[in-house]
Amino acid sequence: MHPAVQGLLTIAIGVSACIGYFYFSNVILDKVIFPARGKHAGRNINRANLIRPWLFLFPAIAALGLYLAYPVVETLRLSLTDRDMGGAFIGFENYRKMSIDPKFWEAMRNNALWLLVVPAASTAMGLLVAQLTDRIRWGAIAKSLIFMPMAISFVGAAVIWKLVYDARPLGTEQIGILNAILVALGGEPHTFLTLPFWNNFFLMVVLIWIQTGFAMVILSAALRGVPEETIEAAIVDGANPFQIFFKIKIPQIMGTIVVVWTTITITVLKVFDIVFAMTNGQWETQVLANYMYDKLFRANDWGVGSAAAMVIMLLVTPILVWNVYNARKEMK
Amino acid sequence: MDNIAGKKSSLTWAVHISVAVLVFLWMFPTVGLLVSSFRSADQISGSGWWKALFPQEQNVMIRTAGPALQQQIDGAYVIEGNLFEQDDLPIGTVSVWGTSSRDINAYKPGDTADLGEDGQLTIAENGDYTLLKTTEFSGSRGERVFLTAKTPPTFTLQNYKTVLFSGQATDKMGKAFLNTFTVTIPATVIPILIAAFAAYALAWMDFPGRALLIAAVVALLVVPLQLALIPLLSFHGAVVEATIAFLGTPDPDNLRRFATVNGLGRLLGFEPGEAVSSKGYLGVWMAHTGFGLPLAIYLLRNYMVGLPKDIIENARVDGATEFQIFTKIILPLSFPALASFAIFQFLWTWNDLLVALVFLIDSSGDTTVMTRQIVELLGTRGGNWEILATAAFVSIAVPLTVFFFMQKYLVRGLLAGSVK
User: Fold this and answer.
1) How far apart are CA B349 and CA B286, in angstroms?
2) Which residue of A has its CA nearest to B188?
3) Paired sense of beta strands A81-82 and B120-123, if any
4) Residue A122's pLDDT is what?
5) Are residues A103 and A44 in the same domain?
6) Which has more confidence, A113 or B55?
7) For residue range B111-137, what is the model confidence (pLDDT) as tens digits?
8) A103 part of a folded domain
9) In A159-185, which positions are buried (b, 16+ CB within 10 angstroms) versus exposed (e)?
């Protein structure tokens, strides 16, 4: 059977199974278990309404529990055990092994660089574009074009930027724009992606290129939400455009800036495809997510791989707590 | 507005120019890939793609037609033709030409070169040539001509034919394209359905533990899916082993291979000795469903909470069941939020590499997806930009189309989805 047919069949089966589940579980609840008639009609309706939310929630809770909550616990367990010794508990041995691996520290250093540069640069660029395009007539088109990389896969972006960074030996025609400019200015061509340390920044550019659009969309909406009166008052008081931007607008959208910043931070912590496709961690460009993939599927070392995954989880946790705290505050 | 006091900001021009520069910078890399995908391998390595949009000066060696085509006119022997057509080049204009590789700038268009006993050669600006001789031409090959010519931009669709239809083992893009669709559609539809019901319960039903569940969804929003890889791969393996134990007996050496198959297993098409991989479409659909659910529930719940309370309460008073309220009122009203999430999930599953690598692609490679195929090409054909650019563009084209047509919903979803 062709996979596409299989896919269609799965949609049909999956969708009808879902609808069937929701429909029949409701019917059974209302008509069979707690029928709304007879002498207990009122009590039955109340009981049915106590159970119904859980009918609606069951598939989602099952999927979330199995595919997201359970793995966190299981990964923690794996990181504390040794697979070769039949899953024996070995304490922090895997973490110790990882901490003496220079590649791990290289990944940590690079991740720290990514965390410093990418969220800051994307947010700043996004803010800049949002502010500039708000003031011109063709702003919507400009925004849409800068937003476009959001739709492109990290792998596609990797190919796009590899062409930009492409290098040919001196004397032949350069087909990568960066080297073409370098050579035209009288320099020598560089293979940018194999230049230790600096190549990290060339990889970061790809993510900044993608994430700026995201930052721009959110911040642009926030900027439009800034009350007119505050700006009018500033103009009347003789503020220049820069003062209006930095002293009136920015403080009022600080909350949104933080949200954008943290969202991009999470993306950065998980970044995998770009490094995997462009350098695969060679030439000192390793990052945590790729390090973990290496350990899990190339070295087949589940212990250290899981330990690396736990490090990513640990780094995400502060943001997780903060998000939950804010969400709860908002609901009250 | 900033210039509310009626004075036109002196910065307006600076703003226009900086936005233009930014847009140019942002578009440039993508356009480069698009243009490259329409150029031949020689063109790509011959010049940067940005030159492809303008006529280019290039040096080519072309042979005139051979003596077989000679005609006798007025007692002289003549070979005529057009050099560009001869070599299947686009018709360009000749700037200079020569007959020896040491002196390729010897003649201007319209000049006549004396080739001694080989006759006289005249080349016009448009590439028309006349080779004239009093005696008969002999041999089998034509005269060599070194041209410096300006050729207009030319583009070809050949790369797309090669990538999609050539059927070569290394260029499985056509297959990968279908596979990607096969992954994407169920992985988009199923979570929407599950999430919609859950979101309704979280938004409009009252029950103990609701606040806790919402908090859990917000927390799961940021859990890196990296943590899920090994546990779930083991889980999928366990499911395969349980299925085999149910439909027959497993091979003692390999629990994921049938030793015998019982009646039910035969009915489902399994055979003794058949191995079942723990990787496959079902696994990847489930994984994408699980990973997409937190965002789906979060987006949909936030939207549904904002729906007017009156409608729902009136319906309740009129005796509608919760199921009816959900399907007849909530779902249609929530269309914008459903569309937002559908686009997110579609883009995410279409562009995904990691989940497909771990849960889908087995050693046979039959179920490869485009992102994986492109990474493969980057490794094996890193220098073949015509293949690489085309393959990448094939995979980018679908999300870009979705993006431009449904941008409104994408923006709306982003605004609702970023945790406030």
Assistant:
1) 12
2) A11
3) unpaired
4) 93
5) no
6) A113
7) 787 777 777 888 887 778 888 887 777
8) yes
9) bbbbbbbbbbeeeeebbbbbbbebbee
Q: Are residues A53 and A105 in the same domain?
A: no
Pair (A164, A209) in one structural domain: yes
Q: A255-264, A284-293, B33-42, B255-264 — which is least confidently predicted?
A: B255-264
What whole-number distance in Å separates Cα of residue B204 and Cα of residue B331? Answer: 13
Number of domains in chain A: 2
Q: Do A30 and A136 belong together in one domain? A: no
Within 8 A of A72 by CB-CB distance, chain B residues are 223, 227
What is the distance, to the nearest Å, from the Cα of residue A316 to the centroid of all Cα atoms in its chain?
11
In angstroms, the CA A143 to CA B408 distance is: 12
Instruction: Say yes or no: B29 contacts chain A, CB-CB below 8 A.
Output: yes
Predicted confidence band of residue B8 (pLDDT cuts 50, 70, 90): low
Flag if B194 and A66 touch (Cβ within 8 Å).
no
Is the pLDDT at B355 greater than 80? The verdict is: yes
The residue among B300, B338, B328 whose CA lies nearest residue B217 is B300
Between CA B99 and CA A269 the distance in angstroms is: 62
B395-B401-B404 Cα angle (round to 5): 135
Name the pLDDT band for B6 (thresholds 50, 70, 90). Answer: very low
Same domain, residue pair A273 and A133: yes
Written as six digits, the tokens of A157 are 């972006």
Residue A88 lies in a domain: no
CATH number listed for the domain at residues B56-152? 2.40.30
Q: What's the first-to-final CA gap in chain A, in angstroms? A: 53
CB A272 within 8 A of CB A293: yes
CATH number of residue A101's parent domain: 1.10.3720.10
- Of chain B, the end-to-end C-alpha distance in Å amounts to 26
| Burial class (CB within 10 angstroms; exposed 0-12, middle 13-18, buried 19+) of A194 | middle
Task: Read off the pTM.
Answer: 0.83
- Would you say A318 and B246 are in contact if contact means Cβ atoms under 8 Å apart? no
User: In chain A, which stretches have pLDDT less than 70?
Assistant: 1-4, 6-7
Question: Which chain A residue has its CA at the smallest distance from B200's CA?
Answer: A56
Q: Using CA atoms, how far apart are residues A81 and A302, in angstroms rounded to an integer?
A: 9
Q: CA B94, CA B202: separation in Å to the nearest integer?
A: 74
CB-CB neighbors (< 8 A) of A232 in chain B: 4
Q: What backbone phi and psi angles, to 5 degrees, belong to B249?
A: -120, 140
B230 lies within 8 A of chain A by CB? yes
Burial class (CB in 10 A: 0-12, 13-18, 19+), A91: exposed
What is the assigned CATH class of domain B163-417? mainly alpha
**Residues of the domain holding A315:** 96-331
- Confidence check on the interface: ipTM exceeds 0.90, yes or no: no
- As a whole number, mean pLDDT of residues B408-420 equals 74
From chain A, the residues in CB contact with B356 under 8 A are none
pLDDT in tens, B184-199: 888 888 899 899 989 9
The verdict on B61 touching A (C-beta cutoff 8 Å) is no
Looking at the structure, tell me whether residues A60 and A128 fall in a common domain.
Answer: no
d(CA A146, CA A126): 9
